Amino acid sequence: MTDPNRITLYYSPQSRATGTRVLLEELGAPYDLHILNMKAGEQRKPGYLAINPLGKVPAIHFRGELVTEQVAITIFLADLFPQAGLTPGLDDPLRGPYLRWIAYYGASFEPALIDKFMQREPAPITQSPYADYDTMLGALETQLEKGPYLLGERMTAADVLWGVAFSWTMMFGIVPKKDVFVRYAERMTARPAFQRITAADEEMAARHAKVAGA
Asked: Where is the GST N-terminal domain (predicted)?
């Protein structure tokens, strides 16, 4: 019988789901992978679209309920395992800043990132969800300069989200390799959880590419 306390993570290697898997490892959470070969287009097949109509990963199932959206998943999982110490409690003064920077990822960073990657003209600053790219990134730079983590001396689940994001976006040249970003990404990606998942992802991605004929 399936353990209802285990989390099912809908997963594809070297995707946004990687950060969620790293977070699960950091939390010491019990989880199983439902693997999708995105190189073969499995995320767009009816079986998965019935779970997430957007055809995106990550998504998780826990106790019969579905959670999608990376920001929501990060908050949910960290709150589910407070003993790991990666989430400020409701009465903690850092709770508001913690939520701010997690929400900032989905509301400002991701839209700005996609516009830049696609070389699209951004909306006028008064209508843009992220003002402009440089202002959006500058706010992060200012915050991280207080370091070593987003909330100063305390590492949280927000750092797992952002550490993985900075690692990938700098690798592809979308985010500039400023010293503060590089040091932050290196600090997070040097952690054992990230190293384990990166190695596993490389093997899985190679298998997926072979199956898909890529």
From this structure: 4-85
Pick from 52, 90, 43: which is nearest to 70 by CA? Answer: 52
User: Rounded to whole angstroms, how far apart are CA atoms 75 and 87?
Assistant: 8
How do residues 183-200 score in pLDDT, each as one tens digit?
999 999 999 999 999 999
**CB 70 within 8 Å of CB 82:** no
Distance CA 208, CA 214 (A): 8
Q: Are 48 and 102 contained in the same domain?
A: no
CATH number at residue 32: 3.40.30.10
Distance CA 185, CA 198 (A): 14
User: Rounded to whole angstroms, what are the CA distances from 59 to 21, 39, 67, 168, 198?
Assistant: 11, 18, 6, 20, 19
List the domain range (segments joined by +) for residue 12.
Answer: 7-85
**Both structure tokens of 121:** 């003209």
